[in-house]
Amino acid sequence: MNKKGSLSLSVNAIVILILAITMLGLGLGFIKGMFGKVSQQVQEQIDQEPEPPAASGGMPITLSKETIIAKAGDDIVLKVSAYNPTNDDWGTTTVPDLDCGPNLVLTEQANPKSILVGRSETYNVLFKIPSGTEANRYLCSASIGDTTNTYTKDFTITIKQ
Asked: What is the pTM of this model?
């Protein structure tokens, strides 16, 4: 019998194809679930963080908390309120900068915003305490501004074991 151009598949090939599609679906469902959980956890952290006092001309930068107690490897949310007391608008790339010196290097994330003259904005700043950070108290600063005017607020991070 000549089966030229036949589209027949063996039973084994069909079973393997069905298993592959099933495993792909399960894998995608798992990954989607994990990303959903992480996203929800970050949102819950942001929601739990209190709003900082309103920033003003006398206090151009305020923080939701000035003392942070954490462990190495922890993810931290800090809300920063910034007021623009200058005569120029701060552009769309304005974000708070957190600095704790050479002994504690933070990598923060915040969505950039523009701040018009005489207006204030609140930023949700996410950062992670690096794994392996020594238990100690670190003096840090949050700063914001433009190239000619920078405003700073000090805060402390205490790393526990």
From this structure: 0.69
